[in-house]
Amino acid sequence: MQFVNFDRIYIHTMNTFSIAIHGGAGTLVKGMMTPEKEVAYKEALQVALDSGYSILEKGGNAVDAVEIAVKVLEDSPLFNAGKGAVFTAIETHEMDASIMDGKTLEAGAVSLITGIKNPVSLARDVMEKSEHVFLAGEGAMQFAKVNNFNVENPDYFYDELRHQQWISIKDTDKFQLDHTEKKDSKFGTVGAVACDKNGNIAAATSTGGMTNKRYGRVGDSPMIGAGNYANNKTCAISCTGSGEFFIRGVVAYDVSCLMEYKGLSVKEAANEVIQKRILEIGGDGGLIAVDTQGNIALPFNTEGMYRGSKNSKGLNEVSIYG
Ligand code: ASP
């Protein structure tokens, strides 16, 4: 005799599916933001949000949704990922990205890559087409070529504002989450988290890192557990902020642990880490998180965080400041 688990069927048909995105926690300070720029940022966020949401709406999975949303943000020069990535101390672009599937705990990450239009897709290929989780530098580039990724000319990634930011601090030891030094810039890592109709969750993060970072520096964004994490037992998380502190705070995994071991909700856990723990060690930034019920948390301790959230109950919001 076959038993049908009605509880499960009920939960699945009622599942709220949702997506949240971020475009970095270091926004233009309010005084520097013009109405035109604000519209441009919000439009770009909405396009990314909609592209991920439409995958979920059609019954697609969370991994596909986060990848597409991050790709849209990587393709926009407004954010520090893919096109528009910041400059390293030697005037190059070195990008990092990662993706994680909360259902299987499979993950893929790349670091120190150049010329790849959509680093998040390369991270996904590492997850799905290699036996490894994390490839960096020349090995990652070789893997990209074998898997038919084009290598773009540096001009593709060039952005005038990012170049000016770099010129202003080059030849110093400073590297910046721009807004902390000059009040007219940002740290615009991008990320997405999603919960699909089946209650599976995923997270993806992509970045150019920090302006004038030392050649070879790796931030939190590609590190599973620091800048990115997803686990169906708890939540999916993508972080943005001062990477060195997020690595030391093992931020994404800490949020998950607070839920798993202490029974906190996704909102409580995310707030605890961003409004307390990361500040205690001197870090600033924010994160986006979603649980398997589709609940979203978007905490940040900076002036703003480019962000958006959308769910099957009618929520649809993009915002910049607190
Ligand atoms: N977390 C990123 C890094 O340190 C920077 C950012 O969030 O913009 O590479």
Can you put this structure into words, describing what you see?
Helix 2 (35-57) runs antiparallel to helix 3 and helix 8 (251-262) crosses helix 9 (266-280). The chain has helices spanning 6-14, 35-57, 62-75, 119-129, 137-146, 160-169, 243-248, 251-262, 266-280; strands at residues 18-22, 95-101, 107-113, 134-136, 190-195, 201-207, 228-230, 235-241, 285-291, 296-297, 304-311, 316-321. It has one domain. The chain contains nine helices and twelve strands. Helices cover 34% and strands 21% of the residues. The strands form two sheets. Strands 4-3-2-6-5-1-11-12 form an eight-stranded mixed β-sheet. A four-stranded antiparallel β-sheet has the order 7-8-9-10. The N and C termini lie far apart (56 Å). A hairpin with a 4-residue loop joins strand 9 and strand 10. The longest helix is centred in the first third of the chain and has 23 residues, at 35-57. With 322 residues, the protein is an alpha+beta fold.
